[in-house]
Amino acid sequence: MSEEHSTFIKTPKQLITVVVLSFVVPILLVALLTKFVDAGARTGAGSSAMTGEAIEARIKPVAQFVLKDANAPKTLRAGADIYTAQCAACHTSGAAGAPKLGDVAAWADRIKTGYEALLKSALNGKGAMPKQGGGDADDLEIGRAVVHMANSAGAKFEEPKAPAAAPASK
User: Fold this and answer.
1) 129 has which bridge partners?
2) What does each C-alpha distance from 163 to 60, 76, 134, 151 come to in angstroms?
3) What pLDDT was estimated at residue 164?
4) Euclidean distance between CA atoms 155 and 108, whole angstroms
5) Closest Cα to residue 150, out of 96, 112, 124?
6) What is the CATH number of the domain that holds 107?
7) Total domains present in the chain
8) d(CA 153, CA 24)
9) Structural domain for 129, as ranges
10) Cα separation of 102 and 91, whole Å?
């Protein structure tokens, strides 16, 4: 007798095992694949806009609260610091016609008008620029920022100094 077409299932126990496994194994594979696919974080399609960090970054400009002591001595910031905090948004890119920091040609006519005229424009606003560049700096700090920007384009303005503190009266 030739055994050309023999099968590996020889007993009824083996047949039952093969039939049960033929149903159980695919079901387990589907269940594991479902768990694997479902395990990731769910966000909008192609977006991470709803993460905690993204939401916090969006509301920070309006929701930020800083408690300042009105009686604390004021520390005046340098012109470069004020420039970075308030002026750089427009004067780095040249937005709305603002002269770029260090652009000698753009600043030349403005420098000719003098420090006082530049300071007046910065304090009161000019063109698309709001008063004080839209910030909350002290007038002296704005003056320092004006000197910083003008001097970067070739002016030789002296940085304004803080007024001397009045002696305490007895």
Assistant:
1) 126
2) 35, 11, 24, 22
3) 66
4) 8
5) 112
6) 1.10.760.10
7) 1
8) 78
9) 100-159
10) 9
Residue 15 contacts residue 9 (beta carbons within 8 Å) = yes
User: In the prediction, which pLDDT does 170 show?
Assistant: 47
Residue 72 domain-assigned (yes or no): no
State which residues of the chain have pLDDT below 70.
Answer: 1-3, 41-49, 61-64, 132-135, 164-170
Amino acid at residue number 31: A
Q: Do the domain assignments include residue 117?
A: yes
Confirm whether 23 is domain-assigned: no
Q: Is 17 left (phi over 0), alpha (psi -120 to 50) or beta?
A: alpha
pLDDT for res 167: 53
Please state, in angstroms and rounded to a whole number, the distance separating the CA atoms of residues 80 and 63: 27
Q: Produce one character per residue of 126-153: b if its CB has 16 or more CB atoms within 10 Å, e if not.
A: beebeebbeeebeebbbbbbbbbbbbbb
Does 61 reside within a domain? no
